[in-house]
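Interim report to the steering committee. The following record documents the input for Branched-chain amino acid ABC transporter permease (296 residues).
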Amino acid sequence: MAVYVQFLIDVLSLGSLYALMALGLVIVYGILKLVNFAYGELIMVAGYSLFLLGGTPLPWLVMAAVAVLMAIGAGIATEYAAFRPVRSKSVTAVLITSFAFSTLLQNAALLFISPRARTVPLPDIFSDTVVLFGAIIPLRNILTIVAAAIMLAIFSFIMKKTVLGLAMRAAATKFTMARMLGIPANLVITSAFALSGLLAGVVSLFWLGRIGSVVPGIGLEPLLVAFIATVIGGMRSLQGAVFGGFLLALIVTTFNYLLPPELLKFRDAFTFSLVILILLWRPDGLIQGPATGQRT
């Protein structure tokens, strides 16, 4: 019983992080039809914000709130610096600009802070454990699941019940028509980047809670995870991104539990092989989103 509970919590907590990351990536893709390759650096920005605030007397919750706000600000800055000036240009130009902005942020961290790993302040609750049906569960895993559930509920409310959500869904489905009907394009796109930053900021707190430190290249793994999850779930579907995140977490955790120790170093190879099989079966992802128009 304890093993099953442990497995379930591990899948749900890891899936929560993957789902939120994938959601942040696909919300921008849905409107711009482009992958934001600087998305992983939002986690880096939040991590270094937390590190720099570590020497202050501020309560941890205030530091965490500031770190999330910095991630939102970095998300908006990405839109202004890397996407808006070249939005009407070719896909190649936008992708290169996105990569360049990502590299710029990483090099700024290398130059002005340090290439070494820096420990971030974390509250004691992140290292505490609880016993649940005989399984010893890190409390941070429970917090991750609860935080993800709250974030998904808030996100769902925004998308379904607010004017902003309606405008974003309309823009994601038929952007040109949405603009002709008077929906402010720049406001919708900036809001998408801000929401993306909010999700990345929240994920960063729990991602850092697992590893305890931040380095300039910390955003690469979350970006890769988010990209794979969205491809599995469906690049045009918000529900697909969430589903893809949890499915990827299920695959990774299952291999962690089943593979013998001598094969664990090949876990990523097994995972990606399974992902390839899924994509051969459903090349457009497991959940189809609405048909979309041309790139913005």
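The chain has a mean pLDDT of 85. The committee is asked to note this result when reviewing the revised timeline.
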